[in-house]
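Task: sequence design from structure.
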């Protein structure tokens, strides 16, 4: 099972690489990786497991964060209506997005970043993501709120982008234009 010591931390060049597409249908090896990533997130949100293994409660993980430079993400997050998005996606792609942007009120953190980085991280308020699931089947998700933010954060990792790259350096707390505050 994956623990925090498997998580690559900032400073490692792999986090700055553009990850490679996964060949399809996904190989068994890649499917196993996807399962391990999703399992890590589920464990990390289980209070007993989190305490026992010192896991930070994670809502998303990208393969480069465990040292695998492939286009694979896992997300385990609940939206405002209590709907659970628990999915691993190969070759995820944002195929459309709103003009409106949003951000988390308290900014973002990252499992690969062991320090607070203050500032607002602008994200599209709504996105449509396409990808391939663990069965090799096409998936299309229309997302808003927290799930939309998490998918954008994870897909950024596949392109070597860290959340703080998107913070306005001069005015870190300047709300972006066209913004919708997500609470
Ligand atoms: C996280 N978790 O998993 F709003 F119930 C963060 C960490 C870095 C703090 C562990 C998180 O935001 N949990 C959370 C948030 C809520 C409600 C709730 C739990 N990530 C994932 C990550 O680093 N992936 O690469 C950071 C998030 C910041 C915004 C989206 C992803
Ligand atoms: Zn991250």
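Answer:
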């Amino acid at each position: 099972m994956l623990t925090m010591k498997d998580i690559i931390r900032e400073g490692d060049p792999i986090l700055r690489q553009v990850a490679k597409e996964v060949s399809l249908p996904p190989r068994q090896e890649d499917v196993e990786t996807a399962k391990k990533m999703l399992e890590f997130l589920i464990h990390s949100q289980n209070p007993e497991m989190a305490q026992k293994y010192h896991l930070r409660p994670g809502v998303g993980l990208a393969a480069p964060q465990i040292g695998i430079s492939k286009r694979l993400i896992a997300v385990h997050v609940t939206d405002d209506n209590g709907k659970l998005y628990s999915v691993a996606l190969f070759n995820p792609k944002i195929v459309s997005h709103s003009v409106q942007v949003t951000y988390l009120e308290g900014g973002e953190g990252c499992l690969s970043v062991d320090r607070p980085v203050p500032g607002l991280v602008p994200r599209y308020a709504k996105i449509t993501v396409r990808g391939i699931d663990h069965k090799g089947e096409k998936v299309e998700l229309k997302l808003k709120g927290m799930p939309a933010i998490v998918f954008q954060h994870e897909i950024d990792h596949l392109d070597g982008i860290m959340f703080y790259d998107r913070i306005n350096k001069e005015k870190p707390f300047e709300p972006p234009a066209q913004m919708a505050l997500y609470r």
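The helical segments are 28-44, 47-53, 145-158.
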